[in-house]
């Protein structure tokens, strides 16, 4: 090696010791997983947890140079924004139900399998439940059967499809083909697309197909009925179990296939699909309140702030519940932002003052403001009293 190479090597090694966070960011910065493509899904399934690093004290932080401090803060913002997936009671019961439905997934290809429909309000963790379950399933299949099928195709135990507005039969099939990276995904006729999709599923030995955001299909209209019939056909044709997620699917007549009145009994979907509701946290019962505190306790240990301490979140359980109404997506949003405020203002903890600076998502913000209004009106009225 030349002297120049030696010098370069020494500088990199030096930076690794004085600024290990730049190196950490190079390995663990925000990951652009594209779950709806096989390469992206594969990367998501193969990814392990991010490497942990020590949380510095205020004195240690004060001793850092400007670049190292900037990178340390950036690294912990990435860390704080990627909270671990907690096995909540909602997730455990959904997993158990999906496990039951998948028991029929072991039926031979000539017999029909059921499907699971994760049907709940926005931001309750539907996609997280479906993807984490599918990830575990994918890993188990890989471990047992290896990455290649006996015919030499890449084994893809799971396919993931995210729907968008105005879904039709054709777009559904092309999205499925897009997952497999099939060159015909954008071309060819609807019928051909459907048979190509079945080919992909069969040759890659896919056993689970996750269809996210099914509420983009309007089952009360003809295009929706076509999609619904097509999904039934796919379930007949392919030896897979479908997991659907969506908002208000029962109200959107997914189970009834858009039928009304006495005709509803003819809806096969209702007999084939199992509804899996996901409820928000609730603090009205002792068990519910305990589950909420347990969730906060699991999350608070993960946050990298110099003044983080046990009780940092659990001591504010009521306030955090009021701010988020027990919706896990609103909670994780709020915590990302609270950590950002804590780091940028130098507060280095999550307390009432920091929380008062955090603006949550629209629904959480509106619901938090709403119950306060009567109280504000009452106190305004009191102020007006002589
Ligand atoms: N079990 C969990 N542990 C930790 N965080 C979670 C968990 N479930 C959900 N979250 C957080 O909530 C966010 C929203 O979850 P997710 O996208 O799964 O909800 P959703 O019900 O699919 O939402 P939408 O209705 O908008 O599609 C996630 O990005 C994650 O931050
Ligand atoms: Mg979702």
From TrEMBL:
Question: Which Pfam families does UniProt cross-reference here?
Answer: TniB
Region Disordered: list its residue ranges.
365-386
List, alphabetically, the SUPFAM superfamilies matched: P-loop containing nucleoside triphosphate hydrolases
Residue ranges with Basic residues bias: 376-386
Q: Which InterPro entries match?
A: P-loop_NTPase, TniB
Question: What's the protein called, per UniProt?
Answer: TniB family NTP-binding protein
Q: Which organism is it from?
A: Pseudokineococcus basanitobsidens
Lineage, top ranks: Bacteria, Bacillati, Actinomycetota, Actinomycetes, Kineosporiales
């Amino acid at each position: 090696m030349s002297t120049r190479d030696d010098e370069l090597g020494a500088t990199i090694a030096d930076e690794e010791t004085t600024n290990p966070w730049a190196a950490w960011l190079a390995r663990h910065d925000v990951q652009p997983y594209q779950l709806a493509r096989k390469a992206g899904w594969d990367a998501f399934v193969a990814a392990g947890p991010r490497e942990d690093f020590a949380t510095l004290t205020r004195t240690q932080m004060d001793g850092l140079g400007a670049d190292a401090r900037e990178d340390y803060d950036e690294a912990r913002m990435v860390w704080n924004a990627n909270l671990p997936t907690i096995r909540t009671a909602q997730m455990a019961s959904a997993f158990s139900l999906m496990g039951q439905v998948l028991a029929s997934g072991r039926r031979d290809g000539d017999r029909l399998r059921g499907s699971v429909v994760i049907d709940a309000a926005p931001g309750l963790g539907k996609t997280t439940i479906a993807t984490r379950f599918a990830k575990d399933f994918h890993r188990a299949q890989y471990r047992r059967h290896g990455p290649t099928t006996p015919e030499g195709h890449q084994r893809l135990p799971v396919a993931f499809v995210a729907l968008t507005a105005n879904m039709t039969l054709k777009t559904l099939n092309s999205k499925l083909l897009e997952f497999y990276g099939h060159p015909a995904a954008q071309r060819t006729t609807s019928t051909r697309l459907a048979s190509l999709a079945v080919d992909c599923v069969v040759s890659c030995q896919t056993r689970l197909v996750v269809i996210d955001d099914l509420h983009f299909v309007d089952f009360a209209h003809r295009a929706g009925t076509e999609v619904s019939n097509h999904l039934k056909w796919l379930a007949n044709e392919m030896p897979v179990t479908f997991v659907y997620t969506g908002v208000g699917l029962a109200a959107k007549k997914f189970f009834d296939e858009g039928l009304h009145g006495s005709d509803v009994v003819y809806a096969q979907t209702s007999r084939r699909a199992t509804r899996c509701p996901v409820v928000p946290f609730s603090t009205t019962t002792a068990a519910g309140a305990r589950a909420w505190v347990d969730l906060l306790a699991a999350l608070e240990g993960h946050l990298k702030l110099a003044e983080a301490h046990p009780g940092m979140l659990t001591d504010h359980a009521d306030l955090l519940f009021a701010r988020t109404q027990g919706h896990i997506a609103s909670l994780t949003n709020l915590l990302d932002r609270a950590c950002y405020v804590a780091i940028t203002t130098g507060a280095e903890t999550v307390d009432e003052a920091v929380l008062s600076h955090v603006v949550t998502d629209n629904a959480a913000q509106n619901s938090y403001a709403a119950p306060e209004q009567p109280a504000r009106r009452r106190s305004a009225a009191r102020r007006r009293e002589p």
